[in-house]
Amino acid sequence: MRREWLEKDYYEVLGVDKDASAAEIKRAYRKLAQENHPDRTSGDADAEARFKEVSEAYSVLKDPEQRKQYDETRDAFSRGAYAGGPHGAPGGAQYVRMEDLGDIFGDGGLFGGLGDLFGGGGGGRRRQPARRGGDLETEMRLSFHEAVSGVTRTLAIDGPEGRRQVTVKIPAGVGDGAKIRVRGKGKPGVGGGRPGDLYVRVHTGTHPIFERSGTDLKVRVPISFTEAALGADVTAPTLDGKVTIKIPPGTPSGKVFRVSGRGVETDSGTGDLLVTVEVSVPGELSPRARELLEELRDLETDDPREHLGV
Questions:
Q1: In 3-state terms, what secondary structure has residue 31?
Q2: Taking the CA atoms of the chain, what radius of gyration do you get in angstroms?
Q3: Phi, psi angles (nearest 5°) of residue 16
Q4: What is the helix, strand, coil percentage profile of the chain, to 5?
Q5: Higher-pLDDT residue of 140, 5
Q6: Could you read off the pLDDT of 66-104 as tens digits, one per residue?
Q7: pTM greater than the 0.85 cutoff
Q8: Could you say which of 27, 34, 44, 172 has the lowest number of CB atoms within 10 Å?
Q9: Residue 250 confidence (pLDDT)
């Protein structure tokens, strides 16, 4: 008998019920293996350990015979069935044989000796089964630039064991309200079970010029009446500099120009910059400017409100 079968609840590792079908077990394994694969989480020791744990659980539960033996072993152990003949107990109960206990409870075994299991030989009380620790949640506020560029922060987390410091890496391009999962930084496990996870909900600040829409950035750029009417090359700001936009003649106020690849950069791609031009009307005019505009008005023949029927 393998001692790790008593140490680890493979169903809990995969996040499935004990009566889960083979297909459900396979789906759960694939999802967790993909999330924690070393190719995807390079350098993350917690993810690597989680990947190994998930693979170990699946290697047992995917095989019907091994799964049956695993279930019977854990059931028998949980009932306190520690001894029995070579043919098992009456009624078909599968007991753990006494010769197996040497492997499990000997020096350096699962619980460091039979004395630990039975409370020093007098109490007969068994240790608690391994159980995963609970998850913790906290919040973090970021500036607009921190959310766009990514940042590493150290948080003070209050838990059952007291206050501790947890380093959280926020990926570039994180959105407002997103949850960042930090594996193994939740509540400690019970009976040797693995710890829970920490979830950090992110709140991002605003920017005086830019507005975010997913990975796209929006900005409003004023242009003059003559630039809109005659066309012009105007400059628009970006997160890391500026870009020139060609305004064609006759551009109306509110026209949106898309600049590819100048939005928010993330691991899955980079958004665009959406520039909305707004025709700016001067508050004051020089006498000569007024004279020219009045002359232009007299030359106008089209009624811009004709389609309204007024």
A1: helix
A2: 33
A3: -125, 165
A4: 30, 25, 40
A5: 140
A6: 899 888 888 877 766 544 444 444 444 444 444 444 444
A7: no
A8: 34
A9: 93
d(CA 78, CA 256): 68
Token reading at 26: 């396979």
Q: What is the amino acid identity at position 303?
A: D
DSSP string covering 256-280: EEEETT-S-EETTEE--EEEEEEEE
Q: d(Cα 122, Cα 101) in Å, to the nearest integer?
A: 18
Instruction: Evaluate the CA torsion angle 140, 144, 145, 150 in order and state its sign.
Output: positive
pLDDT at 92: 42
Q: Give CA–CA dist 211/149, Å, rounded.
A: 15
Share of the chain above pLDDT 90, in %: 45
Separation in Å, CA 196 to CA 69, 128, 136, 183 = 28, 17, 7, 7
- pLDDT for res 79: 66
Helix (H, G, I), strand (E, B) or coil at 245: strand
Return the structure tokens found at 59.
Answer: 């290697």
Residue 109: is its pLDDT beyond 60? no
* Selection from 135, 147, 136 nearest residue 178 by Cα: 147
CA distance 248 to 163: 61
Rounded Cα–Cα distance for residues 171 and 180 (Å):
9
- Cross-strand bridge partners of residue 180: 200
Tell me which DSSP letter residue 190 carries: B
Q: Where are the beta strands (DSSP E) in 178-240?
A: 179-182, 198-204, 211-213, 216-224, 232-238
Whether the per-residue pLDDT at 227 is higher than 50: the answer is yes
Answer whether 305's CB lies under 8 Å from 275's CB: no
As a whole number of angstroms, the distance between CA 187 and CA 132 comes to 9
